[in-house]
Amino acid sequence: MPGQGSRFEVELPLGVVEGEPVLVQAGALSLPDGLYEPQAFTVLMIDDHSVEQLVLRGMLLRLGYRIRTADSDEAAIALLRTEAVDVVMLDGQLPAADLAVRALALRGAADALLLAVVAGLQGAEREQCREAGVAGFVERPARFDDVQAALQRLLANRVGQQTASA
């Protein structure tokens, strides 16, 4: 009813990580002692649509990441065999099954985190992609804040895990 409001309950499965804590601040993740510095990470964008590639590239440049681009999976795999990349941002305008196949091929080429830019991929479809190695999603059309948060979350978790195991 109008004026009544709503109540939501959220359950989050959280694990315990040894070592330095990851600090969570108002929607952004940061690590102690400046361990998360965007300029220290390389993002490979795979997108065959030049306008979308330019928009995402602009966002990544503004955030401070080093950027590589590829217009096909084959070009990306060739690049991954010769260069170290931290995150592969892939265009997810495909059915979930095709996106999962792409993710498996890319995971086989490098130990990079996969971030899919998708539209309307939900539930079982996202789970299928996660099982294939997609570590995170950004909803299309990609917004600056969403791209920033997704990359920070993925890279902060990876850096946090590496710091904890060192």
What does this molecule look like?
With about 170 residues, the chain is an alpha/beta fold. The chain has one domain: 3-Layer(aba) Sandwich (Rossmann fold). Helices cover about 40% and strands about 20% of the residues. The chain has 5 helices and 7 strands. The strands form 2 sheets. The protein has a 5-stranded parallel sheet with strand order 4-3-5-6-7. Helix 2 (about 75-80) runs parallel beside helix 3 and helix 3 (about 95-110) runs parallel beside helix 4. It is globular, with a radius of gyration of 17 Å. The chain starts with about 20 loop residues before the first strand and ends with a helix. Mean pLDDT is about 80; it is low at about 15-35.
Helix content: 40-55%
Level-1 CATH class name: Alpha Beta
Unreliable runs, pLDDT <50, ≥5 residues? 16-33
Number of helices: 5
Strand percentage: 15-25%
The topology string of helices and strands comes to EEEHEHEHEHEH
The dominant shape is: globular
CATH evolutionary superfamily:
Response regulator
CATH fold node name: Rossmann fold
Classification by helices and strands: alpha/beta
| Integer count of domains | 1
The strand order across the widest sheet is 4-3-5-6-7
Radius of gyration, taken over Cα atoms and rounded to an integer in Å: 17 Å
Taking all residues together, what is the mean pLDDT? Answer: 78
Distance between the termini: 54 Å
The CATH architecture name reads 3-Layer(aba) Sandwich
Q: Count the strands?
A: 7
Mind describing the biggest β-sheet? 5 strands, parallel
